[in-house]
Amino acid sequence: MRTVAIINQKGGCGKTTTSINLAACLARLGQKTLLVDMDPQGHCGTGLAVPEEQVERTIYDAMLDPADTRDGRVPKVSEVVWQIATDFDLAPSNIRLAAFEQVFAGRPGREDRLGNALASAKDQYKWCIIDCPPSVGLITFNALKACDEVIVPVETGYFSLHGLTKMMETLDMLRERTGKDIAVRVLPTLYDTRTKLAREVLSELRAKFKDHLMTSTVNFNTKLKEAASFGQPITEYDPGSKGYKDFANLARELMGGRPAEPEIAPDKMSRPQELVQRARALAQLANYQFGKNAVPTIPAAPSAGQIPAVQMPGVQTPPGQMPAVQMPAMATVAASAPAIPASAPLFGTGVQRIAAQAFASAPVSAAAAASVAPQPQQLLQPQQQQPVRTTEQKLADFYGVKQTDDGVVFSARFDQARQVLIAGDFNNWTPASTPMFRQPGAGWSMKLPLAPGRYRYRLVVDGKWQTDPHNQYVETNQFGEMNNVVEVE
Ligand SMILES: Nc1ncnc2c1ncn2[C@@H]1O[C@H](COP(=O)(O)OP(=O)(O)OP(=O)(O)O)[C@@H](O)[C@H]1O
Ligand SMILES: [Mg+2]
């Protein structure tokens, strides 16, 4: 049984939320898990709808001496637990636990009461999560002695950072007293990526506690609050929520896997899907120049694996500016599009070049894109001499970093993401100042006016820092992660 104590003397930093939902996610992943409530407030029971009035025995009873009980018998942990879900049991607590420090003060072995009680359960569970009270006393020291590792949830606010330094010092001191090599890790919680303070605190945490910081972060998510008020773990209340994802990630990280990256869309498409997508790309290009209504509806292809439309942030035909190349009436383009010969290159020189030029020209505009676009009839000619390129190659061309005359365009594809930000040398690593913009059907992009030089950056996708998957040029940073690198000429 691997035992993890959730400790922070600061109140309200997410200890109980972390304990309940981490335990629930471990259980959901098939790991038999015991959650031990070591807080006399009994919040684990409340948060899991265990009826307080029906709780007869608690973890406190399992820690007593026979002389402390009426019948001279101390219940085993297995006799006090409540089953919450499959593979998920709770050893509850209540206000009686508040007497623990007084009752055991001066008794030999008072620091090992919990460890001894849990020894009887160690073969029944794979994991034991201990929720501690917001204080560092005998109860917390018992948890520390009973555990193999500690997670310190830290709310990403200013005062928490201040308190954390003290907490870590205290833990260091206590850890020495246990004589055990206990791993202590910091888990950022209640992280609200929209606030500057939270972002700054997270950067500070990364800088200050780099060796102790968990890769996972728990975002502020109202579903977690709601789940607790409904007496359910997030696994039951809303398994589709961001809160669930964060705790599932945390569970995976503890289990030794890396937290899951946000999904990058699968990229294999069937031939008909690709053809439809190509037609859509053409139609969208035409939209810029002739208005939406001129284009007959083209059936939407499945969203997974879409080839991006030829579209850029802020791409508009400047008022009064004529496209350099006259396009035929839209009906012709749209009607012709499905008739693309099967042997035509899917994203061949025509659309590919438009896309590439759209990135490469400055300012990026539909007019500019159109000025390099060949006649649509040419696009629809079979071009047998061109080798058929894989979807991966086409995506590689479309996404990534492209230098234009007036800036550098970052484009990335995260179909499931709700927010993508860039952080790098150029914005002092403050992602919020540089959000990428979602382009319907074309991923996320952002153009930055960067002076010549070498820059490092990372993407922050729904609050998670990660390497840009479309830029192979990387180097390791001080946290052992990969920064992307871009060189502007
Ligand atoms: N990630 C989160 N998103 C939204 N609300 C959260 C999150 N984490 C915790 N909360 C809410 O913050 C409040 C405090 O959380 P919690 O009870 O887990 O903290 P705690 O550290 O256990 O507090 P205490 O020190 O009193 O035991 C609760 O109302 C909880 O629902
Ligand atoms: Mg609590």
UniProtKB/TrEMBL annotation:
InterPro entries in UniProt: AAA_dom, AMPK1_CBM, DNA_Partitioning_ATPase, Ig-like_fold, Ig_E-set, P-loop_NTPase
Annotated ranges, domain AMP-activated protein kinase glycogen-binding: 416-489
Residues of the AAA domain: 1-183
Domain of life: Bacteria
Family matches, as PANTHER family: COBYRINIC ACID AC-DIAMIDE SYNTHASE, P-LOOP CONTAINING NUCLEOSIDE TRIPHOSPHATE HYDROLASE
Protein name, UniProt field: Chromosome (Plasmid) partitioning protein ParA
Originating organism: uncultured Phycisphaerae bacterium
